[in-house]
Structure formats: structure tokens, C-alpha cells
Description:
By secondary structure, this protein is mainly beta. It is 10% helix and 36% strand.
Amino acid sequence: PPVTQTPPVQEASQPPKYPPGPQTSPPPPQKRPGRAGAILLLTFVLALIFGVGLFAGLEFTSGRSSTSTTSRTAATATATSSSGTTLEAQQEAAIAKIEPAVVEIKVITVQGEQIGSGVIVDTNGDIVTNNHVVSGEQTIEVVLSNGSTEQAQLVGTATADDLAVVRIQPFAHMTVAQIGDSSKLVVGQEVMAIGNPLGITETATNGIVSALNRSVTESTGTTISKAIQTDAAVNPGNSGGALINLQGQLIGIPTLTAVNTESNTAANGVSFAIPSNLVVTDLHQILQQ
């Protein structure tokens, strides 16, 4: 299918969580020319979604929450599939299947600490995440679903696709994500995002596939082709986490979310994920290096 090119966008960069010194205020966003009357043409930029805070004055601790948080936007308990299983039951089963494979990633850089998510993809302890989550790393810590913390090493990156692989020491009964075929996705299909938005661990949100084959470009020049667009809630900290189908299979890695430049607030329901088939290709190449 053809690749749909999104309008020109700009990455909304995020400061480190614990900056070493005073931060300069970002320049105000430029207003888009051509507004007339009461019609406002909203422009959007893409923000890398690692956990360092999106809104000024809103702070979250990086400590692991004592209980997992599950947020479902418009879950419909009465809807049933052709098999007779309720949609809610399918969602719960899918989340339970993959959630132990989704981890929190804490990265210390010279600028401070940044937080993202990752997904365990094999029994060797390899974890897929976004390159921008681990970029500039000095140390990498992985917080597992059971609350334990493991030191991780960077295995390699695919910077052109904003993907990276880190590795922890394998452990007994480690859950590995099952990877699905992103080429079989259809617009309108139910999906869920699982990660650590704003440092709130094990958070799940649901939505649909809004569009396929999007081409989105970060300000760094990195272009993600054939990206999955979804309206599942994705926030800072979700980067590198899991976008899954109702079978609990990994079908994408949430990476970008849209920001309204006029209000400098998140554009709800407009997020993008790297398709799982591209993830598999890059994973094999990284592990063979």
C-alpha cells in the first residue's frame, strides 16, 4: 500500500528530568499563517515520548508505583466478538499475556535521567526500545514487572528507525513478548498501548488503529516510514513500550505523539508507532552485528 506523507512536523524536544543547571525557556511556537475569521488551523508537531514531563509545573517521581495502573479509554464490556468473548475479556487477557514482558528503562546521561519503556523479545534478555530513550547513555537500568531492577548494556542501535536493543541477564520464568505481523493490521482494529507514561509503571490504554503507512519525520531527520497511527493514549514514558493486538501480540513500538503548537498541549488521540515487522528486521540486524 502507498505510504501516506504527513504534513511537515517538528519534534517537541523534552529536557532531562534532573538537568545539571538552569534551563533556558524555549521560544514560543510560531503561529501558522493564513488564519481567517473564527476558523483556526491547528498545526501539530511530534514529540519524542520519553518520561521527562510534557507540561510545565507537572512533576512525577521516577520511583516505581506500588500498584500497577490500568486505564482504559472507552472500554466496552457489552461488546462481543464473533467468538462470543466480550471485548473487555479479550483486552484483559491480552494485557495479562504481555505485561510481564514490558519493562521500565531508566537512563542516566550527562544531562540527567530520562525514562522510557522497553519490551523483552527473547530468552537471552534482549529488550527492544527506542534509540532516543537510550541516546547518550552512561548507565541503563531496567525495572521489571516484579519490581526488581537489573543493570543493562546497550547491544546496538538502528538510528535510522529510532530503535535500539539493550540486554539484561536472563532469569528464570522470564516472559518474552510474542511478536505479531503488522502487515495484517487494518484501520479500525482494536489495539492497546502498555508502558510507563510519566513514570507511572504498567499503564495500559486502549484505542484503535487510526491509519496505516504514515511517514513521520523527527527534527533530527529520522523518518519512520509506514508508521502505525493510533488514538490509544500515549504519553511521555511510553516510548519503546508495546502496542499490542487483542491476541496480546506486539504489533508496534510507540514512539511519537502529536503536540498542538498553538496551545503547547498534547493532541489527544494522535500517536505513532514503529510497526513490528520493521522491528523484527532491525532486531535481527542488530543482533548479528
